[in-house]
Each structure stands twice: as structure tokens, then as C-alpha cells.
Amino acid sequence: MKEALIADEVRLPIDCDTDIVAARRNGQELAGYCGFPSTDQVVVSTAISELARNIVRYAARGEITLRLVEDGGRRGVEVLAADAGPGILDVALAMHDGFSTSGSLGLGLPGVRRLMDEFEISSEFGKGTTVTARKWIWVSWEPPELDDWLVRFAQARAGRMTPGASPSVLDGG
Ligand SMILES: Nc1ncnc2c1ncn2[C@@H]1O[C@H](COP(=O)(O)OP(=O)(O)O)[C@@H](O)[C@H]1O
Ligand SMILES: [Mg+2]
Predict the structure, then answer these.
(1) Number of Cβ atoms within 10 Å of the Cβ of 142
(2) Are 63 and 51 spatial neighbours (Cβ–Cβ below 8 Å)?
(3) Cα(47)–Cα(59) distance, integer angstroms
(4) SS3 12
(5) With a threshold of 0.85, does the pTM exceed it?
(6) 37-69: per-residue pLDDT in tens?
(7) From 51, 89, 106, 162, which residue has the greatest number of CB atoms within 10 Å?
(8) 82-135 per-position pLDDT tens digit
């Protein structure tokens, strides 16, 4: 997690249940660093776990990329779930509560859309599926140490260009 964070994004291969658990945990951790309160950390990790579960169940394998994003006064976590699986025949239908081709609850995709602030899905039948979801934190929610952490994060990114630079922003370097 630490190395990946310094690279500004964490890319997680997803092809089994333990990958789902790891993605969930990494997402919760990243949301915490971003400054989300613990309830929203759980929201982010729940969304990640639904998307990762869909990858394993329907596409067998794929990748989840987690990013810290910034836009004006707000910061957020971006979750990108991508696979080259069978794709979705009717995306609009798949976004309805209760629609499932696996006899499951069919609440995953519409749930992720409700949980996150932004949601985009693109899927081509036979080619694969990409879901991008973002959750934003407004300035008024920021814990005081967030700015400090972001400065150190930027310094560590600059530092990684230098051989022998401190490898971890999270240890305070
Ligand atoms: N990554 C994916 N690749 C192919 N099909 C998918 C993928 N994710 C979701 N789907 C399709 O969309 C449907 C709805 O997904 P979801 O809302 O998560 O419900 P559930 O997983 O409970 O069926 C799934 O049943 C499946 O047909
Ligand atoms: Mg699902």
C-alpha cells in the first residue's frame, strides 16, 4: 500500500476472494488518509468490494485502481474497476435494483451508484466492463492534519525521483 500510494495510485489485480478483501481494506485505508470519517470509509470500501466481487464473479479477473483526486476545494477517492470479461448486454437493465444474471440480489451496481457521488459505467458486450466511481470530501469535513499529509505526500512523490529518497510518506518521511 505504501509504495503504491507514493505512486499516486494503487493498482490491484483482482481474481479471487482474497483480492476482494485486500481491495476493500486498501480502499478503506486510502479513504482514511483522504480525510473521510469512518462511516464514509466503510461506504468507499463497500463500493469497492461490490465492484471487485462483480469482476471475480462475471469476468473472472480484472483490476481495481484507487486514486486520490483533487478538484478545486474538494478531495476524493476514485475507484476504477476494469475487466476484459464478457461485458454487459444491457447496461441500463443491469443498473436496476434486483436485476441479476446470477440469481444474486442485483443491488451491487445500483448500490455503488447510490453510495458514491459520481458513477460512470461503460461496457461492451464481449469486450469488458469499466466502472469509475468517485466520492468527494468537502473542505468543511477535513481533519486538520489532511493538508499536512498532502504536503508530505507531494514531497514524497518528488523525492521518489531521487535515488535513495525516503520511501514512505506515511512514516513521516
Ligand atoms: N464486471 C462485470 N462483467 C460482466 N457483467 C457484469 C459485471 N458486473 C455486473 N455485471 C452484470 O450486471 C448484473 C448486475 O450486477 P449487480 O448489480 O452487481 O448485481 P448482482 O451481482 O447481484 O447480480 C450482474 O448480474 C451481471 O449480469
Ligand atoms: Mg454484484
Answers:
(1) 17
(2) no
(3) 17
(4) strand
(5) no
(6) 999 999 999 999 999 999 999 999 999 999 988
(7) 51
(8) 999 999 999 999 999 999 999 999 999 999 999 999 999 999 999 999 999 999
CA of 145 to the centre of ligand 2 (A): 36
Helix, strand, or coil here: 35? coil
Q: Tell me how far apart the alpha carbons of residues 55 and 83 are, in angstroms, rounded to a whole number.
A: 7
Given a contact cutoff of 8 angstroms between Cβ atoms, the answer to whether 52 and 66 are in contact is no
Among 53, 54, 101, which residue has the most ligand 1 atoms within 8 Å of its CB, making it the best to mutate? Answer: 54
Atom of ligand 1 nearest to the CA of 128: 3
H-state helical runs in 17-63: 17-34, 38-54
Q: State the CB neighbour count (10 A cutoff) for residue 42.
A: 16
Mutation pick for ligand 1 pocket among 79, 80, 100 (CB with most ligand atoms within 8 Å): 100
Complete domains list, the chain, with CATH: 2-153 (3.30.565.10)
Distance 57 CA to ligand 2 centre (A): 8
Give the long-range contacts of residues 117-125, CB within 8 A, separation 24 or more: 117/76, 121/88, 121/91, 121/94, 121/95, 122/91, 123/87, 123/88, 123/91, 123/94, 124/87, 125/86, 125/87, 125/88, 125/89
What ligand is nearest to the CA atom of residue 101?
Answer: 1
